[in-house]
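Problem: given the chain below (279 residues), write out its structure.
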Amino acid sequence: MNVLLDEVPVPAEQFSRAPRYLSVALTNACELHCAYCYAPKHAAALERERVLAWAVELDAAGCLGVGFGGGEPTAYRRFAQLCSDIAQSTSMAVTFTTHGHRLTPKLVESLRGAVHFVRLSVDGVGTTYKRLRSRRFAAVVQAAGLLGTLAPFGINAVINADTVSELDDLAEFSDKVGASELLLLPEQPTAATPGISDADAQRLVEWAAIARTGVRLAISRTGLEAALPTAEAIPGEHPLDAHMHIDATGVLRPHAYAPTGLSVGIRIMEAVHALREAP
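Solution.
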């Protein structure tokens, strides 16, 4: 099926009021301690009823999907029930990003029919993965096998000095385990790390420009995408129409790396409107 999204210009007043996609950090909790992780380290978690109410409101305003992260979303209390409630109460796609080490056959079964796509974080392969995450690589291979029985899934990989030389291996791994996509995440600066170097960023761009992989490639919006032949879902779409992010304290931000945002009250669409109007 071919869909021409830009054949007929649509007046701005007819756009959906909600962003096309909302990412939600349900909790800051995570048992891994990756040095380059950008997620806040203070304890915080969103109330389940609050998240469900936001999802229903967003759905009514035209949002197409919600994606759960953290921290580690599978560490969130009654995570599977929340996914099920949203899937039953809205028409939105439900996705989540996980390190995979909490996945069990029982949890996967409880999520069946409630999630539409999953992202598995795999930063490096083999001994590199074990060194960066202090977990066996075999365990993440097993997690990929479990996810393959649940829903379509993709692989996320933070690209930095430790992993940029393993891009071919990451693509091969993604293809081998049946992932539909490899999402490249250039490391972002944190209080503890400087982010990806200019030299490694250039290596990433050069690799992605000529790579011939068995899996679809994608890259996060960090500026490097401008140097690559990427396909925009909706050409000319404003970033805040495409995506917004809520952190585990209930602050709505333009994206997960944004330093500031607006606190969300009972009605999330009020915060969405205010964020769009903010200078």
